[in-house]
Amino acid sequence: MRRFVENCENYCAAVAKEAKLRERGLTLDVEPYMKLRRDFSSTQICAVLFEYVHGMDLPDAVFENEAFRQMYLAGLDMLCLTNDLYSYNREQSRGVAVNNIFTVVMKERGYSYQQAADYIGEEHERLVAKMIDASGKIPSFGDKIDGDIQKYVRSMEQCIAGNITWCLETPRYFGVWNAASQRDIVVKLWDVES
Fold first, then answer.
1. Which of 72, 94, 107, 193 has the lowest tally of Cβ within 10 angstroms?
2. Could you list the residue ranges that cross the membrane (predicted)?
3. 191 inside domain
4. At what angle do helices 101-109 and 30-40 cross, to 10 degrees?
């Protein structure tokens, strides 16, 4: 419960900070953006529900463990990156893509749209490898807790895969071009709404 409340408080504070940045038209650099994105994306609120769904309460020592923390952050960052990738077209068409990894890397590194998309793909691959590596390094906390950790890791994996599937299947991000975007792996940028 404590983690849930803390994550909700962090989420509300981050949403307010992101709104101020957007209002002022300010885009952060990659590292501070990803730290803020973890909070204003609500991914941590979703992740804390893994424990509730499985009826478990992982000790603080698990969350303080470096390998678990790396697995956890890699999972959160994958969720954020894929959401930014899929939502960019919609956001840019509404003039609100200031805080999206596309905008961040295009501004910070001078990337084109394609280079930004490639960066997101490469970063996602790096995070998959990091999550797998970190998951394998989580030490034993005893049989019961180890089983709960495995459920948690599996839930993170399912959340990442489920998010990708949902984003590709819903018309929310690709509209009527959803099937064509999936087939051709090309996204036509929408015009900016007036």
1. 193
2. none
3. no
4. 170
What pLDDT is attached to residue 193? 54
Beta-carbon count within 10 A of 55 CB: 8
Radius of gyration of the chain (CA): 18
> What amino acid is encoded at 42 in this protein?
S
Q: What angle do CA 94, 43, 39 make, to 5 degrees?
A: 75
In a domain, 192, yes or no: no
Tokens 């089983």 correspond to what residue? 147
Out of 9-13, 91-95, 145-149, 174-178, give the one with best mean pLDDT: 145-149
CATH code of residue 122? 1.10.600.10
pTM of the full structure = 0.89
| Residue 194, pLDDT score | 41
190 secondary structure, DSSP code: P
143 domain-assigned: yes
- pLDDT at position 187 is 66
* 70 has pLDDT over 90: yes
100 token code pair = 């999206």
Answer yes or no: are the C-beta atoms of 147 and 53 closer than 8 Å: no
What residues make up the domain containing 118? 2-184
- Domain count for the chain: 1
Q: Report the alpha-carbon distance of residue 23 to residue 136 in Å, rounded.
A: 42
Cα-Cα-Cα-Cα torsion 88, 90, 94, 98, nearest 10 degrees, comes to -10
CB-neighbour burial class of residue 69 (10 A; exposed 0-12, middle 13-18, buried 19+): middle
